[in-house]
Specification:
163 residues, Pectate Lyase C-like, globular
Length: 163
């Protein structure tokens, strides 16, 4: 009986722990334009911000708001941007290598000469996005995303229409 009570107590303690809550200090750091590789920026408000040459590699930006922000020459290698709002953002020469953009909203986003090799674009809405000079973008990646007639793609590439 005592073993069951101990196991139950430990189990309840684990469930009471915060589940990877956002890190306010890390968010403030990035909001001021500083690098923060591997930081937990879950649901961070980074909209209307500007950052250059920042290192956010392997950062957790899941469900973050980067709408109408400018992040040029930013390293987002291996970052988790799933379900993030990238509406109207500018990412020129950013590195999204192996980044997770699953179910991200990138409507009207400018990717410029960004590296998208190995990026997960499954379910991403790229309507009106400019990917014309993006590097490392495969047809298989585009097939897992959606866009519209105003999505700008590299020559010879297509994207399914968003429903």
């Amino acid at each position: 009986m005592l073993k069951h009570f101990a196991a139950l107590s430990i189990g309840l303690g684990v469930f009471a722990m915060p589940a990877l809550a956002q890190d306010a200090t890390a968010i403030a750091k990035v909001q001021s334009g500083q690098s923060c590789p591997g930081c937990n920026l879950f649901q961070a408000d980074l909209s209307y911000r500007e950052g250059r040459k920042m290192n956010l590699s392997s950062a957790r930006l899941r469900q973050s708001d980067l709408s109408l922000a400018t992040y040029d020459d930013v390293n987002l290698t291996g970052a988790n941007l799933s379900v993030a709002n990238l509406f109207g953002a500018r990412f020129n020469r950013a590195n999204f290598k192996d980044a997770n953009l699953e179910n991200a909203t990138a409507v009207g986003t400018f990717f410029g000469a960004s590296n998208l090799s190995g990026a997960n674009l499954s379910g991403a809405n790229l309507s009106g996005a400019d990917l014309k000079i993006a590097r490392g973008l495969s047809q298989a990646q585009l097939n897992s995303a959606c866009g519209d007639a105003s999505t700008k793609l590299p020559s010879g590439k297509t994207i399914p229409s968003c429903s």
